[in-house]
């Protein structure tokens, strides 16, 4: 896989000052990156505890009071009636429905591709791989044009159905069954008179739990965070998922839009709180699965 | 680009673990894949074909050859949009490759495992804010009156939000956002790849007198070259699609930022403000072609996907 070009056999002892300098540079770099990654998160968590004027005049990393968090919460959830609740509910409905459809289609499909033979299998596999590797945004505008042609714009299905199409999930299941289901078990089951569906439901499915969890995680997070497609196909505020709702909130904030936002209570603390609320489900999933994600994300590329 | 891009984790492929093709199943195979195949046709194949069809016809459905492509390419916003995205991509890819590889090497080599895992976790967490949330957070980070980095902004001579979002700064801003949400995931991937280099190789290099830098440059980085190429191609393909970031910035800046900064935004304006679906489809086809080429390259040329045994 590689050419090791180590042609300096003579051991070279580096002087102590140069080693110290390199350690220093590395240390500074890591600290700068640490601040870069963590500081915005800390600011975000602190911002809702302040009033708008405190957010502007106090130190950016100070804590206000719990009372202000409550106040910001009330302002935020009073925005346009109960818009926040509607948006969060929409997001949940779209993401969960799509997740269910994704699992119902991708688990059997991955199994079928890995363990059965049929004409067109190779084509389906290659198409799946290519679609999976393409950035998902490439297909958004074409999907919009298609849905528009069939007059499906503005319905929940116009988001749920495209979200359900998740080639990466199929690929994960395909890889999983390909390496984890020994051929002998399947042959033995066939000899014992199991039908193809019994093999799938009694042998393959119970084994598939880990991969189902993985597919569910990626599908849910991807759907929850998606902005582009719902932004194009859902014209009415009461159909928005939270991501598109945040955009609406942003355009009604006096901080960024003094004209349209005049007189509204949605200021910096409310907007920061809205961001936190909107990412909460994903953040919880992240924290729960961080061990798997951070250490085991490369299932095959980490040492056994 | 989100951290949880499906492509990102496609590196899950068990290395060397080829998926063996097993016989059996007969026509049952069709039933297993039927539901997914329908979705693939409806939301993968058909929209692609339809975009091509629209781009080759006019609003009356008459075939017009390449006229739509010529029309959009001659639009006064076309070249700026593609130039913007090109500048962004160059900066983004350089920053991404240099920093993720460097950090992964450092985290792999010079640190206690617990500390290294903590760093990886902290770098990774902003990925949960992918999409709109990260852009909103950065709007605040870039507004000198509320930002915790206000001093830095002032020191750079940027005293107001308007000054920060001057056109020349936009590529840098988008690189910052993309790096904040995406780099942590790639650092994890690169770390995993480095982790996969057998200890004997590193030991041998050490015996030959290689210090940490020589080890990185001559052993570790060449050995994960494949993953670096993979990351670069995926980040390039995803970068061409920039939409949420400039779109939200445009909203927040009260239209001071061009509404057609990126090609995807231009396609959006064609479709939604001009009602020109054929023109929008033509721009989409340019972007689709880029995406298809990148995906095709990865699938056909890399051995990261051991598709099948023959």
Percent range for helical residues of chain B?
55-70%
What is the number of strand segments of chain B?
0
Note the gap between the termini of chain B.
Answer: 35 Å
Q: How many strand segments of chain A?
A: 0
Report on the architecture of this protein.
- The complex is a heterodimer of chains A (304) and B (310).
- With 304 residues, chain A is an all-alpha fold.
- Helix content of chain A is 69%, strand content 0%.
- Chain B is mostly helical and 310 residues long.
- Helix content of chain B is 66%, strand content 0%.
- The interface between A and B is large, with 132 and 136 residues.
Feature tags:
heterodimer, A: 304 residues, mainly alpha, 15 helices, globular, disordered N terminus, disordered C terminus, B: 310 residues, 14 helices, 0% strand
Quick summary of this structure?
The complex is a heterodimer of chains A (304) and B (310). With 304 residues, chain A is mostly helical.
Give the secondary structure arrangement, pairings included.
The complex is a heterodimer of chains A (304) and B (310).
Chain A: H1 16-46, H2 52-57, H3 66-77, H4 83-115, H5 121-133, H6 140-149, H7 157-164, H8 167-180, H9 183-191, H10 196-207, H11 209-225, H12 228-233, H13 242-251, H14 268-288, H15 290-296
Helix pairs in contact in A: 3-14, 4-7, 4-8, 4-11, 4-13, 5-8, 8-11, 13-14
Chain B: H1 28-55, H2 67-74, H3 78-109, H4 113-124, H5 132-141, H6 150-155, H7 161-164, H8 170-195, H9 199-207, H10 212-223, H11 225-239, H12 244-252, H13 263-272, H14 277-301
Helix pairs in contact in B: 1-14, 2-14, 3-8, 3-11, 4-8, 5-12, 11-14, 13-14
